Amino acid sequence: MFRAILLEKTADAFSASLRDLSDDDLAQHAGDGDVVVDVAHSTINYKDGLAIANRSPVVRKWPMVPGIDGAGTVVSSTHASFATGERVVLNGWGVGETHWGCLAGRARLKGDWLVPLPAALSTRQAMAIGTAGYTAMLCVMALEAQGVVPGDGEVLVTGAAGGVGSVAIALLSGLGHRVIASTGRAAEADYLKGLGAADVIDRAALAAPGKPLQKERWAGVVDAVGSHTLANACAQTRYRGAVAACGLAQGMDFPSSVAPFILRGVRLIGVDSVMCPQAERRTAWTRLARDLDLAKLDAMTTGIGLADAITAAPEILAGRVRGRLVVDVAR
């Protein structure tokens, strides 16, 4: 038996509760997985918050164990690439949405979804990174692929106090970029500067409708917010600069024009972490193990127990969680 958060829904009711489940339950509901993992740590992402709080139709199969991220040890496998005893990490692939996830002591997953956990990282550190940090690394890689290098100019990170933003600041500053953090939480300025931000600006400066072209400032942007914030960031990006967009905290709309793209050659790159190909995933995790300052990672991380994940869900949706939450599933 193992403990798990179980989401259940009928026509009349929804519940999120801590339950004792068995391998038989896994076989029934996640039987197409070919690797069984003892999960040591998981985390709470925005998408997990939506699922646990029943705020959005994230879950498409009931009942569901949420948790789009997990790190642990293989206990059995029929997949050629993974053997018993190996440490692995899981991000995305619809886990926690259409396939039982990792907010549980055990998960049955497809080997094609798994990445070997780099030796330099513990399972706790891997989940302190989680999808948020792995997405931040994909954004950094996207900017690099477009030729954005240290010394080109300032790099803007929006939604800076959240998970993606926190890791992006630590990564970019560690690589030598001058990072400007945008946040609506002025009290977090010291925290953001501790991660490596050279300056902090109020998100209100970007959140309202703006002109299609504005004064050039940013050599690159990592945006986790969308809507007017993304539109203004593009309008302020320098000639031939690049914007990596990965989130929608302000909204899914993009009230912009073609002006930044055809007059300044700005490049807007969409970054998807859920279905990202394996080769790119492995590169991202190798880079995270090499380039991320683990002391800064620890500074942005708060540990909680499995039961606490249920109460944490509405907090992350309300924007009251700083950095990363790591779930110790044994607690």
What labels would you give this structure?
seven-stranded mixed β-sheet; 26% strand; 11 helices; 2 domains; Rossmann fold; Quinone Oxidoreductase, Chain A, domain 1; alpha/beta; globular; 331 residues; six-stranded parallel β-sheet
Helical content stands at 25-40%
Per CATH, the class of the largest domain reads Alpha Beta
Count of helical regions: 11
DSSP summary, beta strand count: 15
Biggest pleated-sheet summary: 7 strands, mixed
Q: Would you identify the regions where 5 or more consecutive residues have pLDDT less than 50?
A: none
Estimated radius of gyration: 20 Å
Q: Would you tell me which CATH topology of the largest domain applies? A: Quinone Oxidoreductase, Chain A, domain 1
Q: What is the CATH architecture annotation of the largest domain?
A: Alpha-Beta Complex
Please write the string of helix (H) and strand (E) elements: EEHEHEEEEHEHEHEHEHEHEHHEHE
| Secondary-structure-derived class | alpha/beta
